[in-house]
């Protein structure tokens, strides 16, 4: 009887140790979880590709012709390593480096042809409808 009692005490101690280990493991898991969240690389900021977006890629405007409504804007995003522009009679993006963008609002209906200043063979058109 005495031996059973002592075994019971030992078992109790073992249980407490287990609980302690579980708590430590749990805390470590929580801490590691927090660390992992903190180490997550921030999402790279990509320009939003909306409906009225013209990508400049491989020395071309894509799409080369875009139709929008008065008051809307067009955003050009240069995906080339080479610098490009979107230059029309009424607007000029200036030289855009890789992943740089330029947005132009068009307040008047009409057809706006534009080129790239360093590469005039690059041609695009913005058609603005009422
Ligand atoms: Cu160009």
What does this structure look like?
By secondary structure, the chain is of the alpha/beta class. It folds into two domains: 1-41; 53-129, Sandwich (Immunoglobulin-like), CATH 2.60.40. The protein has one helix at residues 2-39; strands at 53-57, 60-62, 65-69, 73-78, 87-88, 101-105, 110-115, 123-129. A four-stranded mixed sheet has the order 2-1-4-6, with no helix packed on it. The longest helix has 38 residues, at 2-39. The N and C termini lie far apart (98 Å). The model has no long low-confidence stretch (mean pLDDT 81). Copper (II) ion binds at residues 84, 116, 118-119, 122.
Largest sheet: 4 strands, mixed
The spatial strand order of the largest sheet comes to: 2-1-4-6
- Helical residue percent band: 25-40%
Instruction: Just give the CATH class of the largest domain.
Output: Mainly Beta
Structure classification: alpha/beta
Give the averaged pLDDT, no decimals.
Answer: 81
Number of helical elements: 1
Question: What is the first-to-last residue Cα distance?
Answer: 98 Å
The H-and-E topology, N to C, reads as HEEEEEEEE
CATH architecture of the largest domain: Sandwich
Please mark out the parts with pLDDT under 50 across 5 or more consecutive residues, or reply none.
none
CATH superfamily (homologous) name of the largest domain: Cupredoxins -  blue copper proteins
Instruction: Indicate the CATH topology of the largest domain.
Output: Immunoglobulin-like
Shape: elongated
Bound chemical compounds: copper (II) ion
Secondary structure: number of strands: 8
Any idea how many domains? 2
SS strand fraction:
25-35%
Alpha-carbon Rg, integer? 32 Å
């Amino acid at each position: 009887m005495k031996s059973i009692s002592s075994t019971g005490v030992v078992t109790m101690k073992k249980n407490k140790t287990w609980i302690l280990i579980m708590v430590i493991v749990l805390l470590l898991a929580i801490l590691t979880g927090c660390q992992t969240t903190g180490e997550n690389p921030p999402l790279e900021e990509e320009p939003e590709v909306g409906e009225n977006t013209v990508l400049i890629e491989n020395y071309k405007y894509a799409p080369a012709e875009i139709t929008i409504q008065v008051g809307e804007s067009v955003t050009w995003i240069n995906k080339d390593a080479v610098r490009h522009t979107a230059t029309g009679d009424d607007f000029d993006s200036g030289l855009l480096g890789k992943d740089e963008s330029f947005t132009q609002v068009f307040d008047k209906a009409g057809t706006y042809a534009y080129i790239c200043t360093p590469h005039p063979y690059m041609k695009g058109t913005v058609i603005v409808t009422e």
